[in-house]
Amino acid sequence: MLLAEELLLLALDPDSGTPVNSSRSPLGVALSGALVAELGLAELVAEDGRRLAPVGPAPSHPLLADAHTLLGTLRGRRAADQLRRMDRALGGGWSRVVDGLVQDGVLGRRRDRVLFVPVTHHPVLYPKARDEVLARMREAATGDGPLDPRTATVLALAGPSRLLEVVAPARADRGHAKMRIRLAAEQTPVAPIVRKVIQEAQNAAAAAATIAATSAATSS
Whole-prediction pTM value? Predict the structure, then answer.
């Protein structure tokens, strides 16, 4: 399962099939970061000044291949700019990741109308897949043991994606979980390029969450 797929499963309410805790906006950037981090773990990304550049052949997975190609074409002075623009360039990172999980039978797709507005829900059809990810991330967030690179990447992106309450449902655990999220990449033996991708994605997702919260407050 892709890192981006694991992150999206954390963000879904398994019954309603909708994002939890207003996580939809920051997730667009965080999912792009997860895709690029996956490329970094495969040594398919390098630094080009303050930007990221694809290296090597494109991977076989179509979504990763698209992300790999886009890194060479997206404008922006910094890696965070590339990650912010990748969501739209991919045709909607959320939609692309959801489509893959629907195709694999992990998620369903149900279209309803709420107050005459069409709404698409993606209930979890294969709970074992989400349960495994959720259990691993909760153990990582509330424990003190070493983290493998893939778990650390998803945990690091869960914080700015507004998923703290998902990985640490008990209020008493959230202070520790915040520390683990902050240190996930730093404490994990990953290549510097992967650490950079995670940090840039964290910053970009946090900015997106702030903008979304400000917009919601203004409109209300």
Answer: 0.89
